[in-house]
Design brief:
Distance between the termini of chain A: 46 Å
Strand content of chain A: under 5%
Order of helices and strands of chain A: HHHHHHHHH
Radius of gyration of chain A: 19 Å
Oligomer: homodimer
Number of strands of chain A: 0
DNA sequence: TAATTAAATTATCGACTGTTAATATAATTA
DNA sequence: TAATTATATTAACAGTCGATAATTTAATTA
């Protein structure tokens, strides 16, 4: 459909390894996931993995980068095309749509942020969210003056947006218990998007 | 100060084990934390742990229950004393204050929710948050009619509140990178509490 | 103080961890 | 097809995992 590029055998198994590793790292974290689990799920033997990734760390970084890519490009386009404050009111819905296509990566992102400050995961996530702060700072200052007076308040807003959007996908079990439904069902995704939209418009009205 | 109850030697080391285990489970999760790490940090040998907890699972449950207790009692009092919608506008600030006293437990709660649906962690968290849904449902319906029409929408609200409140404490590294400050500093906690208060009032205005 | 119980230790278990070496098989290029 | 490279395998490594048994030391109770 989208990409019918001819893949060599090695590239195909590398993809299979990434596909197998992604949900495992997302659910059990870096330390909680073993190469045995990954290679078993990918249908290869353990040392075979080292033909494609030179260590567990490097595999983890590759998983994370692949997962961040669609978020990153979608956000770039959105930031370039959308004027002013709509960046903030529409971005959560956009992120929700992307996360919906690969629900486990929400957990992957949160796991990545829990490690050491210098860890690969942390750094990748930080440089990604940093653009939101920079761009968002400009937009808001241009629109409503310096109401969001400093970087600290802006960071609090961006962090809240991130946690609200990804946190929804982390609450699958919780939602099933509280509402007896599937959080990924279309109707519930719509509910969440309406909720986010309302919430973020309300959030900005405070600063008008 | 608060409790000068005479503790037996065994009870004291049990406490020390819990104190050592809490931040480790919070940061590395259940599977990512080893009994070796815990006992080393608690200053005892590994088999000595089994004099106080019969397995890793049981220790984990004990850590989680102890961490949930102050949240649970504070929430009970709050629900009993606070009328109507103020339950929702003031609860996040209250939770923030409690989490501030033991910052690692925010991560502990999120980790607990990631496991299997039947896991101890998940069940403990669910029965705790379930009360919010039940009580909150009554309050809101009594105040503003059936505007929050069904359980699904209510669950979305409760989940958002939970993720916003705990997510702040999970974003320590992120905040340091984005705003070059300490997320636990009094001034930033105040910022977050003001933000949460505004946000939740705005959230409810939508339903008036 | 003596008896009893609680709490700690050392030694050890089989299973699992990430990783490497040596080697065989399959795919690609000459 | 032959040569070469890419990709897979089996075997083995030192270190760690959670847990148990047997035993010694310390604390509590009689």
């Amino acid at each position: 459909m989208t990409d019918t590029v001819k893949l060599s055998k090695g590239e195909k198994t590398a993809q299979r390894i990434l596909d197998a590793a992604e949900p495992l790292f997302a659910r059990h974290g870096f330390e909680g996931t073993s190469l045995r689990q990954i290679t078993r799920s990918a249908g290869i033997t353990e040392p075979g993995l080292y033909n494609h990734f030179s260590s567990k760390q490097e595999l983890y970084a590759a998983v994370l980068e692949r997962a961040l890519k669609p978020m990153s490009t979608a956000m770039d386009e959105h930031l370039a095309q959308t004027p002013g404050l709509r960046v903030y009111t529409e971005l959560p819905g956009l992120m929700t749509d992307i996360l919906l296509q690969h629900p486990p990566i929400a957990a992957l992102f949160q796991q990545a942020l829990q490690g050491e400050r210098e860890s690969v995961g942390n750094q990748l996530m930080q440089q990604w969210l940093d653009r939101l702060v920079v761009q968002g700072g400009h937009s808001i200052e241009a629109m409503v003056g310096s109401t969001i007076e400093d970087r600290a308040n802006l960071a609090i807003h961006v962090i809240a947006m991130f946690n609200l959007t990804t946190g929804y996908f982390l609450s699958q079990n919780l939602f099933a218990a509280l509402a007896e439904g599937d959080i990924l069902a279309a109707e519930n995704i719509e509910r969440q998007k309406r909720f986010l939209s309302k919430l973020f418009r309300a959030m900005l009205i405070v600063y008008e």
